[in-house]
């Protein structure tokens, strides 16, 4: 299931960042390798769709991040 959130932070030097889920909850870590579009770095408050996986210690991490195109989201409730 695809989740949606906004980029909370991104460190281009380390290649890691966090995304805050739209439905609430703690920010999830992600790595540059998890970005579908690698030609440009994500910006703060940019909206992405993502999946999650469980990593060390049972923490969830965002994977398969894909930039959400404006006007192309029919799953969002208003």
Keyword list:
five-stranded antiparallel β-sheet; Cold-shock protein; 78 residues; mainly beta; 5 strands; disordered C terminus; 0% helix; OB fold (Dihydrolipoamide Acetyltransferase, E2P)
CATH class: Mainly Beta
Pick out the low-confidence regions: 72-78
Number of domains: 1
CATH superfamily: Nucleic acid-binding proteins
Which radius of gyration do the C-alpha atoms yield? 12 Å
CATH topology-level name: OB fold (Dihydrolipoamide Acetyltransferase, E2P)
Q: In CATH terms, what is the architecture?
A: Beta Barrel
According to DSSP, the number of beta strands is 5
Average of per-residue pLDDT values = 88
Q: Which structural class is indicated by helix and strand composition? A: mainly beta
Q: Between the first and last Cα atoms, what is the distance in angstroms?
A: 19 Å
Organism: Sphingomicrobium clamense
Protein name: Cold-shock protein
What's this entry about, in short?
With 78 residues, the chain is mainly beta. It contains no helices and five strands. The chain has one domain: OB fold (Dihydrolipoamide Acetyltransferase, E2P), CATH 2.40.50.
Secondary structure layout:
Blueprint: E1 3-11, E2 16-21, E3 28-31, E4 47-55, E5 59-67
Antiparallel strand pairs: 1-2, 1-4, 2-3, 4-5
Question: How would you describe this structure to a colleague?
Answer:
With 78 residues, the protein is mostly beta strands. The protein has one domain (3-67): OB fold (Dihydrolipoamide Acetyltransferase, E2P). The chain contains no helices and 5 strands. It has a 5-stranded antiparallel sheet with strand order 3-2-1-4-5, with no helix packed on it. A hairpin with a 6-residue loop joins strand 2 and strand 3. Residues 1-22, 50-78 are annotated as: Disordered.
